[in-house]
What does this fold into?
Amino acid sequence: MYNAPAVSYPVGRSPFQTGLTLAVVLAGAVAQGAWWLLSVAHGADHLLGLLLWLLVGAWTFWSVLHTPRTQLVWDGQGWHWPAGASTLLERPQVILDAQHSLLLCFRQQSGTAVWLWPAQRTQPDRWLALRRALFNPASPEA
It folds into this structure.
């Protein structure tokens, strides 16, 4: 079998990622609101819960808004993510496949995780090439 051809694909914040993040934060708001409405008395635990929800929600949106925009590169032998210096990545794990968007987890050689959200609308003409590279059973790491 042959390896998938080389491809580079732009990655960054995707609309699917933003929508999913918004849905999770809003679900937390609904849970907080239900807790407040169904409680007879409101104490320090309610304030702590609200504070934690606000902090986590703010951090989540900050991280979504600061998602780096770069290129994910498959050179036919390995994956590269040139954020700063070119970084060689291990074989990706596909965490979520929504056909039009993917959530990928790569491990750098240092062991740190890189989470990327490629979206079809970013570069529709290269989408299938990226998917072939991701799901190619003939790659050396498979």
